[in-house]
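User: Can you predict the 3D structure for this chain?
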Amino acid sequence: MELLQKHGRKIFLSIILAVVVYAALLLVSDTQKLAAAIRDFRWELLPLIIGLTLFNYAVRFLKWHWYLGVVGVKNLAWFDSGLIFLAGFSMTLTPGKAGEFLKAFLVKQRVGTPVATTSPIILAERLTDGLALLVLAAFGLLIFDSPQVRIVLVGVLVIAAIVIFLVQRRTLANRVMVWMQRAPLLATRMHYIQAFYSSSFTLLQFKTLIIAIGLGIISWAGECFALALIVIGLGIPFSWTLVALSASAMGFATLAGSILLVPDGLGVAEASIDGLLLAFGRAPWLPAGTITQPIAAAATLMIRFATLWFGWWLGLVCLGIVSRRFGQKTDARSADGQSG
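Assistant: Here is the predicted structure, written as structure tokens:
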């Protein structure tokens, strides 16, 4: 698998970064209390936690397959589409998840659709997932009154709105593309740029956008509930306040990791989940229990293993199946977005 060979060094460095991050998390925690918290965890909840992660993947797959239909890909079987979607998780440890454009290449390899037509789906997925995470993160803002957090969330929302507005202005976009044709380097790639814009325009239509954001809220709510279950399994009694705070912590942490383009939010997401759980847990909104540092650290480690690392290994397995099933090697240059 040539793509893995190309990104192998980046993935290896991401794993080293993960080791450093988790070591740092252990250093700032009482390791004995952390070990005790994990030992006393209600492990009978683990299948449900993994089930919620799989629920997230299932709904996100529905959005992916629906997006394919929106841009005109009607001849890709559901099973192949699912394998391609899951194989994309093998690239989550690349910076900015750039390797996930592998999905667009695999679609081209299977049914011949140009990469320029399907690669905007990956960008649309990130945008709509980001907006969905904003909604989930906002749940806790009514309880956790932080002007700094509100400023960050509003800023991201404004940027997303500007991008959507510009993409929808076809006259402006056409003028820009006419100007781009004057540049020799860009002129040779205009067919790709025009196809990319055409798909982007279709994917960001208002109705399509609302449906995609709705699916994003439903899917990511699964992982938010998974975090709440982990905290409950660590000894904090159930309450809807706890669920709302878990949604806010998970939503903001995932969003922050995506914005900073580090490999699957490594370091950023862990620090955010741990810090927000600790801040939420020490406030008077959880009268039945307090989230201590060992509990916050244990919850952070467990949710990342149940989401990031579980998804990565699942992606590697599916990438291996795809490579054998499709009968061709994945070409690294094409997977990076060349239309071929």
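The first helix runs from residue 2 to 27. The CA atoms of residues 194 and 316 lie 33 Å apart.
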